[in-house]
Amino acid sequence: MNFPNRGDVDHLIDPQPLPEFARVQYEPETAAVDDPSAAVRSEVDRFDFDGLEPGASVAVAVGSRGIHGIDDIAEAVVEGVRERGFEPVVVPAMGSHGGATPAGQREVLESLGITESRLGVPIDARMDTDQIDTVTVGSTEFPVHVSTAAQESDAVVVVNRVKPHTNYSGRIESGLTKMTVVGLGKQHGAKAFHSTAIKEGYVETLETALPAVEAALPLVGGVALVENFHEETAHVEAIPAGSFTDREPALLEQAYDEMATLPVDDIDLLVVDELGKDVSGAGMDTNVIGRYRVLNAPDPDEPSIKLLYARGLTKATKGNGNGIGLADITRRAAVDQLDLQKTYANALTSGSTAKAKLPLVAPDDEFAIQTALSALGGYDPDTARIVWIQTTQDLSTLHVSEPLIEDLPPAADVTGRESLAFTDGTASFTRD
After folding, report:
1. Which of 115, 283, 144 is nearest to 210 (CA)?
2. Where does a domain end: 212, 239, 258?
3. In total, how many domains does the chain have?
């Protein structure tokens, strides 16, 4: 596809004066676990492995999200299982991620630091599943699939972060329940889940499918993690099988209280340097940007962001640009990073096709910013509310336009004044 260069489109917009910016350090008060690995090993000791013979295989199910220190946490779970006399094996529990291929899922784990050599255990990344049941959710029959690798193990432990979901809100969102039903369902299970959930509701579909999965798997329990504003581990808890849906709502409430948010809610233009699956399942955390963009689920009330410019993809996402459709504007450099096979595999499995759409593609930063300012309507540099962040996961250091300074909360400190400049169309901040 040929996108226009600057010479083709420059005459279509009128240059707008830029506001001045402030560099801001945002540090809300948080709590963190001093030694997450030690906490994980202690929690693994609480699991009931009664009935398992020494040498029994234990599948440790891990996913693909940007969990803080997930390599260390996975290693701690593996060590805890091994210390009990069992043989751990890592099983990817990430639905269709990694292009829905074994090699792709291994690649995702490797990008997170989870490798066979690092953990000293095999990784069984087979995408094979069995249809273990058909359950009815509302008026829909839902085929439930489960990973063959997990079924062939003598026991299963899942590891995941409990956090607000990127597509909906409810008493159960991202966490152990979703990883067990969707992640271990591989591509077929994830596709069937999302197709039903879009129509009948995510929580209803999870709660209906979980008992079928628990009946088919030797599920021991799950290690639930909650993270703070800085994406650090704030809580670790072993939850036994059969108790996921009882315990997760309280942990989800804690996650909402702890999660990273922008320091202001009313924004004209949000600029995001990078999006990716390592940042959020939706590329950008939808609770941070206030955009779900899925059928049958209204967007969050806050924050209110008029326009969003996404500049590029993280290296770790390896071309999976699912979530780029949440932006209004991107640039050619971001499109050049896209691996459409991975992006489409993710979007088609989830049924959230809007996240894979291409927004307006600008030739460079300068044209993208000028396009956004012109599109705001009645633009005035003295009142424009612009926020510029690295990713939706890293909100400690950011830039805001001068008109926003007076609205910043006490936890946000202005550390300097800077100007936005362009070199060959590429944006950068320079200290005044």
Report:
1. 144
2. 258
3. 2
DSSP type of residue 56: -
Same domain (yes/no): 373, 237:
no
Say yes or no: 47 and 196 in one domain: yes
C-alpha 58/C-alpha 149 separation (Å) is: 10
For the question of whether the overall pTM of this predicted structure is more than 0.85, the answer is no
Question: Would you list the DSSP string of 254-316?
Answer: HHHHHS---S-SEEEEEEES-B-TTT-TTSS-HHHHT---BTTBPPPSS-EEEEEEE--B-ST
- Say how far apart CA 333 and CA 251 lie, in whole Å: 39
Tokens standing for 26?
């945002």
For residue 301, the model assigns a pLDDT of 83
Residues spanned by the domain of 110: 36-258
pLDDT in tens, 135-152: 999 999 999 999 999 999
For residues 398 and 386, what is the distance between their CA atoms, to the nearest angstrom? 11
Beta pairing partners, 389: 272
Encoded tokens for 383: 């009142």
Averaged pLDDT, 188-205: 93
